[in-house]
Amino acid sequence: MLAHRQPDLSLVMDNVNKAHNLSAIIRSCDAVGIHEIHAVSYRKNIFDRQTAAAGTTRWVEVTLHQSITSGLSMIAGRGMQILAASGSSKNVDFRSIDYTRPTALILGAEWDGVSTEALEAADHHISIPMHGMIESLNVSVAAAVILFEAERQRTAAGMYSRPMLEKESFDRLLFENAYPRLGRILREKGLPYPELDVNGQLPSSCHDSDMPDTEGVCSDSGLY
């Protein structure tokens, strides 16, 4: 999973407030290898909802922002092209975009759509062609359709065949996902993670601990 993560592909939820939509979007992001997504809302309780929705998967990091402007400024600073899914007159077919470039996709709620601030900050406005009476797809469905076009292009370009995460992040996430309870204890005590062997196993200096809910600790970590 970590070897397929795409740190230069992300998504921004602009006032997507329904927990079931948040959860479905996060699952789609995980499926295409997105490592981090962003969210902002004017509703005071949305941060609790987004945190709860993020709990449906522990594989995708959700960064919450107080404003869409601050969130997009940070993303632009990483050199990402910003795409806004909208029905504006400037939109283009979502399949015409080059998703092998560092890319962040903005999605808004079905009723309000993407905010004016986000539209103004976007490099491209995109839309999904439809031929029925319905004017828009559910936001989580739209996210999946667009993200899997990005996955298709990136697969064709070989971007999933080589690790793209920096080694430090890769090693940290590998340890936290393989040994979540031990990782939590070490973080709480401010201690470094032991280096895993080539098979992802703890080194021989690690032993079982009498502490509850642990999977073993290292004698040289100060916990044994």
TrEMBL record:
Catalysed transformations (reactions): guanosine(18) in tRNA + S-adenosyl-L-methionine = 2'-O-methylguanosine(18) in tRNA + S-adenosyl-L-homocysteine + H(+)
Top-rank EC class of the record's enzyme: transferase
Keywords in alphabetical order: Methyltransferase, RNA-binding, S-adenosyl-L-methionine, Transferase, tRNA processing, tRNA-binding
An individual GO BP term: tRNA guanine ribose methylation
One Pfam family from the record: SpoU_methylase
EC annotation from Swiss-Prot or TrEMBL: 2.1.1.34
Gene3D superfamilies assigned: 3.40.1280.10
Cited HAMAP family: tRNA_methyltr_TrmH
Job description of the protein: Catalyzes the 2'-O methylation of guanosine at position 18 in tRNA.
Protein's UniProt name: tRNA (guanosine(18)-2'-O)-methyltransferase
Source species of the chain: Chlorobium phaeobacteroides (strain DSM 266 / SMG 266 / 2430)
Gene of this entry: trmH
